[in-house]
TrEMBL record:
Keyword annotations of the record: Signal
Tagged with keyword ATP-binding: no
PROSITE patterns assigned to the protein according to its UniProt record, in alphabetical order: PROKAR_LIPOPROTEIN
Protein name (record): YtxH domain-containing protein
Bias type Basic and acidic residues, positions: 54-77, 117-129
Stretch forming the signal peptide: 1-20
Regions annotated as coiled coil: none
Region (Disordered): 24-77, 109-129
């Protein structure tokens, strides 16, 4: 099975949000008696998150992940474009070198043909003598 990276990140965000639906709320109350004694009472209440709050968090996490994935995709596209440009430049350089080598080979072939023709003429001259 193949899944896109975006789908996997959204699934992970949903899983994390679903497990984090419980919030701890703490309230502190400080009272002072007429004698000057201070008392602080801390109340801890745990409230479960509503489905709407969980859905909103999941949507926000999905939107954030989508933005990050698009940004990463744009960076990758830019790097691939740069790599393509480098490959094109290397190909052009290789073509130029191959053309130069081909020209050199043609020149050597022409020189060899010219030398062979001259040798043939010299042998004809020597045979006449």
């Amino acid at each position: 099975m193949k899944f896109s990276v975006k789908t996997l990140f959204v699934a992970a965000a949903v899983a994390f949000t679903a497990t984090a639906c419980e919030q701890t709320k703490t309230t502190e109350t400080t009272t002072t008696t007429p004698e000057g004694t201070t008392a602080t009472v801390t109340t801890d209440s745990t409230a479960t998150m509503s489905a709407e709050e969980a859905g909103a968090k999941m949507d926000a996490a999905g939107d954030k992940m989508e933005g990050k994935m698009e940004e990463a995709g744009a960076k990758m596209d830019a790097k691939m474009e740069a790599a393509g440009d480098k490959m094109d430049a290397a190909g052009a350089k290789m073509d130029a070198k191959m053309d130069a080598a081909g020209d050199k080979m043609k020149a050597m072939g022409n020189a060899a043909a010219k030398s062979a023709e001259q040798t043939k003429d010299n042998m004809k001259e020597a045979a006449k003598k």
